[in-house]
UniProtKB/TrEMBL annotation:
The gene is bag-1. One of its GO terms (cellular component) is nucleus. It comes from Suberites domuncula. InterPro entries: BAG_chaperone_regulator (IPR039773), BAG_dom_sf (IPR036533), BAG_domain (IPR003103), Ubiquitin-like_dom (IPR000626), Ubiquitin-like_domsf (IPR029071), Ubiquitin_CS (IPR019954). This is BAG family molecular chaperone regulator 1. GO terms for molecular function: adenyl-nucleotide exchange factor activity; protein-folding chaperone binding. Residues 1-79 form the Ubiquitin-like domain. Residues 101-181 form the BAG domain.
């Protein structure tokens, strides 16, 4: 069972979803520390005018249910006074920029997929996008390593929670980056297949034109001067064989109808 409560902090109001009847006051405080930047141990939760004293008490036992309203009091962390928190915040800010770059790459890939990029420009566009994806991946990994290197005391639950959230976010962005690379490869493969089809089609059209010309010439020689028929047969059959249409009656008939 899950339900939602409203928690006020100053002028801010937070809708907090509670999952399970066994959720305690401590669980709610941990959630609020993420939303308000107030450490769990510094929070004062008030419900119906009374302060919730026992962190181990289930919320349902205290009469907290769907639509209940609570208030939280406490002092926020000061990033300037907490160097480790400041480092985490800096990494999160940098990751924001990385996410915007991925958004830009995604939009350009979508343009290629929808045919908004000229065919002759697709290959170069894909190469450029692939390089940008590699750069974004390296940037995200560097920030992941920065988070891992931050020394946070076990008692600083808020900062540790923020770092964990940042790590999960970066991992999701790395997965997204990998998916974009796959889409780029698919665009590149489609371009190669299109070029092969176009080349094959052009070669077929050229062969058909050659075949029609040879058959027309052969016919004219036969009609105009039958005494050269034996020589003409040997000459033209050799040409038919050279362009790979010798004996292909259906193809020859199609050419004559062009």
């Amino acid at each position: 069972m899950s339900f939602t409560v409203q928690v006020s902090h100053g002028s801010d109001k937070h809708q907090v979803e509670i999952h399970g009847q066994e959720r305690t006051v401590a669980h709610l405080k941990d959630t609020l520390s993420e939303l308000t930047d107030i450490p769990s141990e510094s929070q004062k939760l008030i419900f119906k005018g009374k302060t919730l004293q026992e962190d181990s008490r289930p919320l349902c036992d205290l009469g907290i249910k769907q639509g209940s309203r609570l208030m939280v009091l406490g002092r926020k962390f000061n990033a300037d006074q907490e160097p480790s928190l400041k480092e985490v915040v800096q990494v999160c800010s940098a990751v924001d920029g990385g996410e915007k770059k991925l958004d830009g790459i995604r939009d350009e890939i979508t343009g290629i997929e929808k045919g908004f990029v000229q065919s002759e420009l697709v290959a170069d566009a894909c190469r450029g996008l692939a390089k940008r994806c590699v750069s974004c991946g390296e940037f995200l990994m560097q920030n992941l390593e920065k988070l891992d290197a931050i020394d946070i005391p076990p008692t600083e639950t808020l900062i540790r929670g923020k770092r964990k959230s940042a790590i999960v976010r970066i991992q999701a962005l790395l997965k997204r980056n990998d998916d974009l690379i796959k889409r780029i490869d698919a665009c590149r493969k489609s371009k190669i297949e299109l070029d092969q089809y176009t080349n094959n089609n052009n070669n077929k059209q050229q062969t058909d034109r050659q075949t029609k010309l040879l058959i027309t010439t052969y016919h004219n020689v036969y009609v105009q001067d039958k005494c050269f028929l034996t020589v003409a047969n040997a000459f033209f059959l050799k040409l038919f064989d050279d362009i790979g249409v010798f004996g292909r009656v259906e193809r020859i008939q199609n050419c004559l109808n062009m």
